């Protein structure tokens, strides 16, 4: 087993694709967060659902992804950028996993909003963890961008 875990939530498989690339390049294990209730596939409806959940700090029940992170030292944490923050399933993970002493490395996919407040919001939820600089990618990212980021954070 690796000491690296890549945890992600993906709405439209873009974040899933990025998580897979990170896992491949780092040799890390991969884990998808699956909420009990899926978001609407209608963009306008999903946007309303998500905005409400993000604003009130909602933590959806997870069907999978909440297994122990005890054996891992590094947790790559991936999400779409939703309203400058992470998706609610990420909040569920952060509040249920024991991340004390872990190094968390955020990454996100976005349509123009970059990393937003994702790193800052993770730091608020995980004050006893080290949170490294994140990576923000649009859907057309390439492998070299991921490689450059991984080299830039000094882990690989």
From TrEMBL:
Domain of life: Bacteria
Signal peptide: none
Single GO term (MF): FMN binding
Every Flavodoxin-like domain range: 4-151
InterPro entries found in the cross-reference section: Flavodoxin/NO_synth, Flavoprotein-like_sf
The protein's name in its UniProt record: Predicted flavodoxin
Species of the source: Clostridium acetobutylicum (strain ATCC 824 / DSM 792 / JCM 1419 / IAM 19013 / LMG 5710 / NBRC 13948 / NRRL B-527 / VKM B-1787 / 2291 / W)
């Amino acid at each position: 087993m690796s000491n690296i875990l890549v945890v992600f939530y993906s709405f439209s498989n873009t974040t899933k694709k990025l998580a897979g690339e990170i896992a491949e390049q780092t040799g890390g294990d991969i884990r998808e967060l699956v909420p009990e209730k899926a978001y609407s596939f209608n963009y306008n409806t999903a946007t309303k659902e998500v905005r409400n959940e993000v604003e009130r700090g909602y933590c959806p029940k997870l069907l999978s992804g909440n297994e122990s992170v005890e054996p891992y030292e590094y947790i790559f944490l991936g999400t779409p950028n939703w309203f400058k923050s992470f998706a609610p399933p990420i909040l569920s993970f952060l509040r249920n996993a024991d991340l004390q002493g872990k190094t968390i490395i955020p990454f996100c996919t976005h349509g123009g909003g970059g990393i937003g407040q994702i790193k800052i919001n993770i730091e608020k939820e995980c004050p006893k963890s080290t949170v490294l600089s994140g990576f923000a990618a649009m859907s057309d990212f390439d492998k070299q961008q991921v490689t450059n980021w991984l080299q830039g954070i000094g882990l690989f």
